[in-house]
Amino acid sequence: MEKVMPDFKNQIERLTEIGIALSAELHLEALLEKIVRYARELSQADAGTLYLLLDGKLHFKILQNDTLQIFQGGAGAQPITFEPVLLEKNNVSAFAAIEGKTIVIGDVYECAEFDFSGPRRYDAITGYRTRSMLVVPMKNHEGAVIGVLQLINALEPETKNIIPFDADAVRLTEALASQAAIAVSNASLIKETKDLFNGLVKVLAMTIDARSHATRKHIQRVATLNILLARAINEKKDGPFAGVNFSEKEMEAISIAGWLHDVGKITTPNWLVEKKSKLERPFDLIELIRERFAFIREQLSAAGCCKQENPQTNAQTDAAIKNLEDDLQFLCECNKPCEQMDEAALERLRGIARKTYIENGKPRPYLNEEELRALSVRRGNLTPEEIGVMRQHALWTKKILAEMPFKGHLKNVPMYAGQHHERLNGTGYPDGLAAADIPLPSRILAVADVFEALTAKDRSYKKETNLMEVFALLRRAAQNGELDSDVVELLIEDKVFERLDDV
Ligand SMILES: [Fe+2]
Ligand SMILES: [Fe+2]
Question: Based on CB atoms within 10 Å of each CB, which residue in 309, 327, 330, 488 is the most buried?
Answer without folding.
Answer: 488
